[in-house]
Amino acid sequence: DVKVTQSSRYLVKRTGEKVFLECVQDMDHENMFWYRQDPGLGLRLIYFSYDVKMKEKGDIPEGYSVSREKKERFSLILESASTNQTSMYLCASSFFDRGPNTEAFFGQGTRLTVV
Amino acid sequence: AQKITQTQPGMFVQEKEAVTLDCTYDTSDPSYGLFWYKQPSSGEMIFLIYQGSYDQQNATEGRYSLNFQKARKSANLVISASQLGDSAMYFCAMRESGTSYGKLTFGQGTILTVHP
Questions:
Q1: Which candidate, A81, A64, A115, places its Cα nearest to that of A91?
Q2: pLDDT tens digits for A67-107?
Q3: Backbone phi, then psi, for A110, in 5-degree steps?
Q4: For residue A96, how far is the Cα from the chain centroid?
Q5: For residue A98, what are the contacts with CB-CB under 8 A and spacing of at least 6?
Q6: Which of A18-22, A66-70, B2-6 has the lowest mean pLDDT?
Q7: Could you tell me if B66 and B59 are in contact, meaning their C-beta atoms sit under 8 angstroms apart?
Q8: What's the pLDDT tens digit per position in B38-78?
Q9: B90 touching chain A per CB within 8 A
Q10: Using CA atoms, how far apart are residues B63 and B80, in angstroms rounded to an integer?
């Protein structure tokens, strides 16, 4: 059974804290993605990675960074959390390029609240 | 410009009836794929159905079918014989072949509520 696992379902952090969201996949996928989900806005891409140590900015990278030291693990880092980063965060993974029908698999999501 | 548009924030349907969730898209890439995902209140994203831009027939998966109208750039999801367990958020998404590394672009989502 394919698995994308996010380290926490719920997190509460204080403004200014450094926050790490972890994602692990066991499918040997090259691509990994971090999305943010907000009501009325759908899912928006923050960052993605297509290989170890490689990363690309998505549509809303400001205030975030990422790390991919191992193929199976992709971390999202909030350098100094702010209340406007309160949101649901979803990690996904997929094979590198098997055509436009390449399916993405998602983790269960992390609901982050910054107070 | 919005690449994927879902204009129905919420939809209601009676159990056992059919419902159509709208999705329009915008791309100049001749090769692309369209996906529908279901997100129950628990939060996980469940893949439902896929349609490729070169597919001649509309995709079907059990009670789910995709009404693909390429000239109109629409890819509506049809759920037949709705069940209470179909109540969830539904997202339409697109992958363009020219887009680096297979990222998906999502619409705003539609919340479907199935009434008994």
A1: A64
A2: 999 999 999 999 999 999 999 999 999 988 767 778 889 99
A3: -125, 120
A4: 17
A5: none
A6: B2-6
A7: yes
A8: 999 988 899 999 999 999 899 999 999 999 999 999 999 99
A9: no
A10: 5
Shortest CA gap B69–chain A (Å): 18
Q: Please, are residues B24 and B73 in contact by the beta-carbon 8 Å criterion?
A: yes
Pick from A58, A96, A106: CB nearest B45: A106
- Is the CB of residue A56 less than 8 Å away from at least one CB of chain B? yes
> What is the CA angle A24-A25-A28, rounded to 5?
135
User: What tokens appear for A11 in the block?
Assistant: 């997190």
Distance in angstroms (rounded) separating the CA atoms of residues A60 and A49: 15
Q: Which amino acid is at A115?
A: V
Confidence of residue B1 (pLDDT cuts 50, 70, 90): low
Nearest by Cα to A30 from A82, A86, A70: A70
